[in-house]
Amino acid sequence: MNAKLTKEEKVILESYENDEWVSISNEVDLKKHRLAAKNTFKKDKRVNIRISKMDLDLIQEKALIEGLPYQTLMSSVLHKYVTGRLKDKTV
Predict the structure, then answer these.
(1) d(CA 10, CA 17)
(2) pLDDT given at position 71
(3) Alpha-carbon distance 46 to 86, whole Å?
């Protein structure tokens, strides 16, 4: 595979390749998971914030390194924070 994968994508790929995934055959569960997936990427609100030029420059630099738009990176970081998946390395 020639595509550059993030750490998270590598973990998912390894999990898949190790046959750790189970297919869902129950129609109710299938509908529930389809709706969750659809809502995960639904962007239906706009937010305007003010941040320092230095912070924005650093965010844009990180996004460039990761190969994604800086707004997407910001949205991802906020999502991980509010869902408890963003961890402080100093703790």
Answers:
(1) 10
(2) 92
(3) 22
